[in-house]
Amino acid sequence: MITEKNQEVELRRLAIHTQRTDVAPEFVKKISIALSVLLADVFALYIKTKNFHWHMSGPHFRDYHLLLDDHGDQLFAMTDDIAERVRKIGGTTLRSIGQMSRITRIADNDADYVTPKDMLSELWEDNKALVLYMKSVHGLCDEAGDVASASVIENWIDEGQRRAWFLYEMSRS
Q1: Is 118 within 8 Å of 51 (Cβ atoms)?
Q2: Does domain 22-171 have CATH number 1.20.1260.10?
Q3: Which of 16, 21, 28, 39 is the most buried (most CB within 10 A)?
Q4: Where are the domains of the chain?
Q5: What DSSP line would sit under the chain, residue for residue?
């Protein structure tokens, strides 16, 4: 006779055998959502960084232009890794630009003209915010025992802090 308790045990056993990783199913959804929002934030910051890269002007044009190009490359490199982390643990991630625009926390800037100093200051604030977002996701991954996601996030936090540092120092002129 199958009891409710036996059925529950069997369902748990089956779930363990069908999981892609050792991340508990209840955390797969939470981490997938958190990483997908982070992915939207990184894409938004990438586009904003490239926008400012393309529209930079002034006496420090070359230095700022090259800095923002490096920052854009670094941000873009994160995108595939974030999405693939979600897929590796069995979740789904962003499917469209519309979805990205609905969930990003990075404010857009499509002004006709932004001063170089304001560009650097705005990107400094955005990179600091991104670091805080990543620390939050890192905490969730730690709680879930998702060591691999937590590990790559640590590297991204370091990169984000470095970007923020450079932007801060350059905006002080």
Answers
A1: no
A2: yes
A3: 39
A4: 22-171
A5: ---HHHHHHHHHHHHHHH-SSSS-HHHHHHHHHHHHHHHHHHHHHHHHHHHHHHT--STTHHHHHHHHHHHHHHHHHHHHHHHHHHHHTT------HHHHHHH--SPP---S---HHHHHHHHHHHHHHHHHHHHHHHHHHHHHT-HHHHHHHHHHHHHHHHHHHHHHHHHT-
Residue given tokens 């990205």 in the structure block: 100
42 contacts 130 by C-beta, under 8 angstroms:
yes
Q: Which of 137, 31, 36 is nearest to 95 (CA)?
A: 36
Task: Please give the single-letter amino acid code of residue 129.
Answer: A
Of 130, 14, 137, nearest to 85 by C-alpha is: 137
